[in-house]
Amino acid sequence: MDYIRVILTIFWKDILAERRTREILSAMLVFALVVILLFVFAFDLSPETRRNTAAGVIWVTLCFSGTIGLNRTLSVEKDRGGIDGLMLAPADRTALFFGKALTNWVYMLLTALFVVPIYSLFNNTNLFSFTLLGVIMLGTFGYIVTGTLLSSLSLQLRSREMLLPVLLFPVVIPLLLSAIRATSILLEGGSQTELNTWLVLLFSYDLIFLAISVMVFDKIIED
Amino acid sequence: MIRASRISKSFGSRIVLRNLEFSADPGEVISLIGLNGAGKTTFIRILATLMRADSGKIFINRYNISQAPIQIRKKIGVVLHSPMLYGDLTGDENLVFYAKLFGVQQPETRIDQILQLTNLDPRRKDLVRTYSRGMQQRLSIGRAILHNPDVLLLDEPYTGLDQDSIGNVDALLAQLAVEGKLILLTSHDLERALAVSSRIDILYRGSIADSLKIDQLAGNELKNRFRSITGKTFPGAGNQAD
Lengths: 223, 242
Description:
The structure holds two protein chains of two kinds. Chain A contains nine helices and no strands. By secondary structure, chain A is mainly alpha-helical. Chain A has one domain. The longest helix of chain A is centred in the first third of the chain and has 33 residues, at 47-79. The mean pLDDT of chain A is 91. By secondary structure, chain B is an alpha/beta fold. Chain B has two domains: 1-75 and 150-164 and 180-235, 3-Layer(aba) Sandwich (Rossmann fold); 81-148, no CATH class. Chain B has eight helices and ten strands. In chain B, the strands form two sheets. A six-stranded mixed sheet of chain B has the order 6-7-8-3-9-10, sandwiched between helices. A four-stranded antiparallel sheet of chain B has the order 2-1-4-5, covered by helices on one side. In chain B, strand 7, helix 6 (163-178) and strand 8 form a beta-alpha-beta unit. In chain B, helix 3 crosses helix 4. Chain B is globular, with a radius of gyration of 18 Å. The model of chain B is unreliable at 238-242 (pLDDT under 50). Classes of the chains: A mainly alpha, B alpha/beta.
């Protein structure tokens, strides 16, 4: 019970602070909007091509704006000395990891709920489906787990905000490819078998990085 | 109760703690003094489970720090250089956060007690970033004792405080000592260390070089001992050593 309580308390505190400062989520949403506008207006694409590239645009937008959240949620703690306070909580240190990952995941899901309708609007098509929501949940979960782990790894470094994307993007390439392929199949049509293959890959990636995070987070955050 | 035996810690090739031996019992207020870089903060962070020693054993309230860090975190309150408070939350919200984190029973009643103890009740609804340094330090001490710990670890609790706040912190520590808490603090202020402590330990080159009971100290004995061990005058003690 201590473990779950610590996770939810960290999440509660982050949301309370965010509600007051509107520092992280608003930056993510504005950035996502700018990226979508750039994609929409920079390329004069036919409706057919737009539909074919929608999956890539959505995932690139989500990843870029997600990095803003990943950079801030842990570095805010470091800058203000709160990381020691969290480490003093009477629970396994992975509770701190899951508390921060939960906050990041909620921010990223809210961004996705903003990005998909906005992109649909600009392309005059409805991209939303519950299956797509499932793919987004699986993809963003893996991205956030990996990102939270790597942002804790770069936490002690002065140039951490520059370093995180450099560390993160190569590691999430398999995840991104799976998410983009699964999304493409949903938007453009494709066989269920092919979709399942990508979903299994996504799920496996999530599980592997979840296990790695649980194993190493304690050591990373302490040193 | 704290028992630390043969504690060593290095950062790369720099040895910070060297076979350090330390013990303390409930009700004691111990000041750890030493030159800059003597290892005071490192020792406090190791006791607080924020850092691991390279070797040695530590028991706090009979729990082994390497085997039961979670149990130990329930028993200690920690104040470090940074106040570990969130400027965008009110004083009240900061305490609610830490009360939830530590699973404090009846948190509302306990938070009211803490805010009255630290004289911050009138400002409880203000954002912490609007607090003075002294108020933040008082709230930080309040945060540290919120879960009623048996052991209090304070790293430089007087840094940046004005005279009023120093008096408040002194009174707070005296009350906690009367309640039987074990208080270990580091200080650069010899006057404060003498005023609040029952024992002063001099940390030099990574180990406790001397341990002095305050009630057995005469005149300038502490300053002289410090100078004979370190070869230097205690920082902030001026040239009064003789």
